[in-house]
C-alpha cells in the first residue's frame, strides 16, 4: 500500500505545515523540534497508541560529552564516539553521517531533559561492546516503554496534534515534491491531508517478510522482535520518488531474547562475564563481540536456541532493566546452586555443562583468550547461585535506508535534496554499515533522537522560509 499518487486535482481536507509519519521516538522528537520552531505539526500514527519499536527496546541512547557523564567522571567526546561507531562497522559508514549524529545526540538529550523534563542518567556500572566510554543514557526504569511514554507526554503537553489509527497508505506528489498524504482509517474510510514538509519517521522494513528475505536472507525466518508496522513504507516511498538508498542489508539483531517468553534479556549478562551455551551445554562463539551479530550465530544452533548463563552478581546489575525484572517475574530466569543442578533445570547434560563452565573459570583465572577469540582478562569468575535463561536470536530492526544530508533532507541518486522530504530513525540510512556486526549498541535510538531533532528543526525552517518569501 506504499503508493505515490499524482497530486494534480486532489482536494485536501486540510493542510498542515509539517506532517510527521510515525509516533515512535524519531517522530515524537521531530514533532517537538518542529513545534519549537513555530511550525504547525501533525503526527500520524497507525496504531491506537504511539509506541513503535522504541517501546520494545531498553530505551538506551548513546551520547558523548554530556553533563551526566561529566558528573560521573566519564571522559568522552563526539570524536571518540564517532571513532567507535566507524570501528565497529569496519569503516563502512559515511564519516560525515557518523559525525552528524555523534555531535547532535548529546545536545538533543540535554534539550529533552531541560525543556521537557526527561530525567536521563548515564549507565555507569557496565560497558557495552565496542564503546570505549560509558555513554549509554536512559530513564529511571531503563525501558523503552518509559521513553516513549515520556516523549508522548511532552508532545501532548506542547499541544501538538497526534492522530492515531491513521495509517498512511499513499503520498501525493508532483514529481519529487510531496503535496500530501492519504490516510486509511480502521473502517476503511480515506482522508487526504496536505503538507508543506513531510518527515518520514516510520522506521525500516523489519516487519516486511518479503523485504527481509530479499535484503537480510540470513534472518528471513528469525523471530521478529520489532514493531509489526515497520513495513518499509519510507523506503518504498523514497525509492519511488527517486531517493538514494544505502546499506539495505544492515540490521540490528539480538542474540538474547528469552524464549518463549519473548522478553529482551540485557547484554550485561554477557559483558559482565556470562556465557552462552547451546542445547548440548557447549559454548559455540565469542559472545562478547556484540548482541547484534550474535542473533544469526544463535539461530545456527540446534533448534535456534541457546542458554545465557551468568550468576547472581550479574543478575543484580541486570535488574536495573525493567525487561530483566519482568523475565524474572515470569520464571524465565532459572536459579541453581551448582552447575549440575542448573543443568538439570535446563535439561542438558550435567557433565558437559560443568566442564564448559570449569573451562571458562580457568580462562578467567588465567586472563586467557579462548579458541573463539574471547578475551577473559579481568572478568570475574561465576559464583553460586547460578542463573540461566533460554534464548533465541531475533531481528530487531533494519539499519539501511534513505540517504540524508546534514539537515536530514532525503537525497536523490545525484546527491541533490528532494524538495520537502526528510527522514529520521530507521527510515534513514543508519551508521551501522551493511552487516549485523556493524551495529554498535544504541545505534537505533541514536539516529532516532539525533536525526529526529535535526529533521524537525529543518522541516520547520523550510516552512518559515516559504512564508517569508
From TrEMBL:
Record keywords, A-Z: FAD, Flavoprotein, Oxidoreductase
Coiled coil segments of this chain: none
Cofactor requirements of the protein: FAD
Domain FAD-dependent oxidoreductase 2 FAD-binding: residue ranges: 18-437
Pfam families membership: FAD_binding_2
PANTHER family for the chain: 3-OXOSTEROID 1-DEHYDROGENASE, FUMARATE REDUCTASE
Name recorded for this polypeptide: Fumarate reductase flavoprotein subunit
Organism of origin: Azospirillum picis
Amino acid at each position: 500500500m506504499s503508493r505515490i499518487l499524482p497530486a494534480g486535482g486532489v482536494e485536501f481536507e486540510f493542510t498542515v505545515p509539517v506532517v510527521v509519519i510515525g509516533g515512535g521516538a524519531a517522530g515524537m522528537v521531530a514533532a517537538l523540534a518542529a513545534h519549537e520552531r513555530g511550525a504547525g505539526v501533525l503526527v500520524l500514527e497507525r496504531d491506537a497508541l504511539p509506541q513503535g519499536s522504541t517501546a520494545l527496546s531498553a530505551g538506551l541512547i548513546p551520547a558523548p560529552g554530556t553533563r551526566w557523564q561529566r558528573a560521573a567522571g566519564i571522559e568522552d567526546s563526539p570524536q571518540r564516539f564517532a571513532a567507535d561507531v566507524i570501528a565497529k562497522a569496519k569503516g563502512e559508514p559515511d564519516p560525515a553521517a557518523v559525525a552528524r549524529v555523534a555531535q547532535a545526540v548529546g545536545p538533543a538529550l540535554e534539550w529533552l531533559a531541560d525543556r521537557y523534563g526527561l530525567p536521563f542518567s548515564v549507565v555507569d556500572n557496565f560497558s557495552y561492546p565496542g564503546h570505549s566510554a560509558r555513554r549509554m543514557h536512559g530513564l529511571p526504569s531503563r525501558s523503552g516503554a518509559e521513553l516513549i511514554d515520556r516523549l508522548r507526554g511532552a508532545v501532548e503537553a506542547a499541544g501538538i496534534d497526534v492522530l492515531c489509527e491513521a495509517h498512511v497508505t499513499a503520498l501525493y506528489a508532483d514529481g519529487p515534491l510531496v503535496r500530501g498524504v492519504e490516510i486509511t482509517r480502521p473502517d476503511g474510510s480515506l482522508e487526504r491531508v496536505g503538507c508543506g514538509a513531510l518527515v518520514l519517521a516510520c522506521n525500516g522494513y523489519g516487519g516486511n517478510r518479503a523485504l527481509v528475505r530479499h535484503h537480510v536472507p540470513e534472518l528471513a525466518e528469525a523471530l521478529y522482535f520489532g514493531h509489526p508496522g515497520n513495513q518499509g513504507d519510507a523506503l518504498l516511498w523514497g525509492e519511488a520518488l527517486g531517493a538514494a538508498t544505502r546499506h539495505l542489508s544492515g540490521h540490528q539483531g539480538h542474540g538474547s531474547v528469552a524464549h518463549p517468553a519473548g522478553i529482551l534479556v540485557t547484554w550485561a549478562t554477557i559483558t559482565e562475564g556470562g556465557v552462552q551455551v547451546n542445547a548440548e551445554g557447549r559454548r559455540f562463539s565469542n559472545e562478547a563481540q556484540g548482541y547484534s551479530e550474535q542473533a544469526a550465530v544463535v539461530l545456527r544452533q540446534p533448534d535456534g536456541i541457546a542458554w545465557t548463563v551468568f550468576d547472581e552478581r550479574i543478575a543484580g546489575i541486570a535488574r536495573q532493566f525493567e525487561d530483566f525484572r519482568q523475565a524474572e517475574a515470569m520464571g524465565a530466569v532459572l536459579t541453581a546452586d551448582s552447575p549440575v543442578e542448573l543443568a538439570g533445570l535446563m535439561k542438558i547434560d550435567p557433565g558437559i555443562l560443568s566442564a564448559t563452565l570449569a573451562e571458562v573459570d580457568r580462562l578467567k583465572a588465567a586472563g586467557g583468550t579462548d579458541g573463539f577469540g574471547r578475551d577473559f582478562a579481568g572478568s570475574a569468575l561465576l559464583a553460586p547461585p547460578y542463573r540461566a535463561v533460554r534464548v533465541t536470536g531475533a531481528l530487531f530492526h533494519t539499519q539501511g535506508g534513505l540517504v540524508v544530508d546534514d539537515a536530514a533532507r532525503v537525497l536523490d541518486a545525484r546527491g541533490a535534496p528532494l524538495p520537502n522530504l526528510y527522514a529520521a530513525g530507521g527510515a534513514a540510512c543508519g551508521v551501522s554499515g551493511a552487516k549485523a556486526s556493524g551495529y554498535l549498541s544504541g545505534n537505533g535510538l541514536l539516529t532516532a533522537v539525533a536525526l529526529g531533532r535535526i529533521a524537525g528543526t529543518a522541516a520547520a525552517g523550510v516552512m518559515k522560509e516559504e512564508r517569508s518569501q
